[in-house]
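Notes continue from the previous slide.

Worked example: a multi-chain complex. Inputs as given:
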Amino acid sequence: MSTHTESMEVEDVVAYDEALTRFDPVLGLEVHVELNTATKMFCGCATGFGADPNTQVCPVCLGLPGALPVVNATAVESAIRIGLALNCQIADWCRFARKNYFYPDMPKNFQTSQYDEPIAFEGYLDVDLDDGTVFRVEIERAHMEEDTGKSTHIGGSTGRIHGAEFSLVDFNRAGIPLIEIVTKPITGAGERAPEVARAYVSALRDLLKALDVSDVKMEQGNVRCDANVSLRARVGDDPSAEEQLAVPLGTRTETKNVNSLRSVERAVRYEICRHAAVLDSGSSILQETRHWHEDTGVTTSGRPKSDADDYRYFPEPDLVPVAPTRERVEELRATLPEPPAERRKRLQSDWGYSDLEMRDVLNAGAIEVIEETVAAGATPAAARKWWMGDLARRANDAGTAVTELGVTPAHIAELDGLVRAGRLNDSMARQVMEGVLAGEGGPTQVVDARGLELVQDDGALEAAVDKVIAANPDVADKIRDGKVQAAGALIGQVMKEMRGQADAAKARELILGKLT
Amino acid sequence: MSALSRDDVAHVAMLARIQLTDEELDRLAGQLDQIVGWVGQINEVAADDVPPMSHPLPLTNVTRPDEVRPSLTAEQALAGAPASELDRFSVPRILDEG
């Protein structure tokens, strides 16, 4: 096992399967979502990613004395829509609160958040697991708050907080609207707890994308997950049995900032194995935050929960309450998109894809482009064949997304139309696609420019068939004797004679018509 | 009965990063206890049907449209910073070692 770069000792872990024989894992997931509003939560500064440092800041988000916040109307609406999509109740009336603590990436020395009056509460999200079953994750609350600035630690070991001599802070991110979504304790998952954690974050990400309230790029930190894990004694074989649920919860740890789907699953799994080792040794779990290390796949101790976690919350005096009318809430409910899981089922049924085909499409993230292609007039089979086949390979080779190749859904629909109209065969369609990829224009333009049209002149095709039959009397005799599969050799020669620009099916028809 | 103990004041001072001498703690504990007592009188006149308020104005839903407004330049933003580098605020290292 590799050792960590900090002077942290690698802790003992128990094999996962063994841990599960004695313990029942319970999860709690907190997901922070950066909204995609044009401006920050409480001021009109832009929110674009990658701007020069401290160029999207103003007195409000820098916490300068006397600056007063004003709530972003769109951010509140996004919060309500997220709450509704999570089947939550929406507060009639709620306030912001100050969460007071000191950290240099938070210029006001408090974070404007919500405390005991979240905008949305008491909901659930149904999550599809790999085996096709659905697991319901109960949502405790979703509340509005603001992001912090970004620190770069200089000196010591590079980029790490330990050993840093000083830190440089960019406040462009400070004040970007965040929605924090908190689950209730997730029980009953048993050995599938790590998978449930990943599937939950994945489903949440899909939902947020469908709502168009966030860019949901985990690698850019738009969606960040804190994973709480605790173990309790296992009783019996059913993790959702009454007797198991009655066992008191163990002490939890909170692993912060797990920022990919794969890491969520790995971090939960690791903590289960580590907790089991601590408990097996007769020690107790220390309630603390943990840091996840992507490179080594372990968590290390952060800081213990302490008096410093007394945040002295109080209602924010500079902001008035948010009190969405029931009419407005219903208007927003009417804007909710079809839930992603239902949409997937509907599209799979509409398109006639097998479970395996649909899973491949989902994993490739090709569902939208295929939907657009079908809407543009292509058959679902052709849309899948192109986007998941030649184009996927091409994108993979180029290290780019399939949608960045310069081929549009309309191109595919046009090409498919030419094939179905009998004007192109499959190999010619591929050549046309090469032309489109090379920037020679749309399919029809490429067909014209390259002279790729199938020969529609039956006379020319018939002459070629006659010529090939005459040149191959042995083969022709075999076909006459009923060996129809021998026609393949003749079709190949006819296609060659026609320089590829013939309809192979029609050639076969003519050959068989003449010889049988 | 004292509403606010000397330990409470020391704790809040620690949370607020305010360093107090023993004499200051003695004096402030007494003063703050009196202040809390005065504010506590409100509880005597506010019946259960009077909800706590956080704002003197009967306003809700004061919002602004999601439209970008000009920000400061980095130079302006950093003008009051005790130290800066690479257009960023320079701050002492964040966690105490050991």
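Summary box: Chain A has three domains: 16-332, 340-450, 458-515. Chain A has 18 helices and 15 strands.
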